[in-house]
Amino acid sequence: PAPVPAPAPAPAPAPTPAPAPAPAPAPTPAPAPAPTVQKVTLASKALFDFDKAVLRPQGRAAIDTEIIARLPQVQKLELVLVTGHTDRIGTQQYNQRLSERRADAVRNYLVSKGVPRDRIETLGMGETQPVPGVVCNQKSLRELIVCLQPHRRVEIEVKGDAVKR
């Protein structure tokens, strides 16, 4: 009988490629700094004389302490909003203009201290936003001026990305 040929050896299995290494995890970006707003209300009694828009020395000192000293803590200064307010004594138009002049005076002082002018916005609200709860019905002008003092103020809001720790 004829010899039976030996079965051909089975072909070697095709090499399987090694699994691709897992991609390195993408670096996790640092969380975005939380936006922050610091709001400071400064009484015009310290900032300005009655019916004036020229900063008093006490007003400059208050701005230095409350605003300028805190600015280095802000990582990225976005905006400084300066809003002037008056009481109801005088006409609406006069009070509107006085509140604008007071806000401008504070802006100019901030600029003199190194705050970029293009980061400062000013608003004058006149007598349109009185402080809630202040009721004044005095008959004498002198007493009325004293009573209405809380309405005469400047609010400064500092907006930035975050406060450095």
How would you sum up this structure, described in words?
The protein has four helices and four strands. With 165 residues, it is α+β, with helices and mostly antiparallel strands. A four-stranded mixed β-sheet has the order 1-4-2-3.
Secondary structure topology:
Blueprint lengths: L35 E8 H4 L9 H10 L10 E8 L7 H21 L7 E5 L16 H7 L5 E8 L5
Parallel strand pairs: 2-3
Antiparallel strand pairs: 1-4, 2-4
Brief synopsis:
The chain has 165 residues and is of the alpha+beta class. The chain has helices at residues 44-47, 57-66, 92-112, 141-147, and strands at residues 36-43, 77-84, 120-124, 153-160.
Mean pLDDT: 85
**Secondary structure tally: strands:** 4
Q: C-alpha Rg, in Å?
A: 34 Å
Number of helices: 4
CATH fold-level label: 60s Ribosomal Protein L30, Chain: A
CATH level-4 homologous superfamily: OmpA-like domain
Strand order in the sheet with the most strands:
1-4-2-3
Number of domains: 1
Q: What are the defining features of this structure?
A:
165 residues, alpha+beta, 60s Ribosomal Protein L30, Chain: A
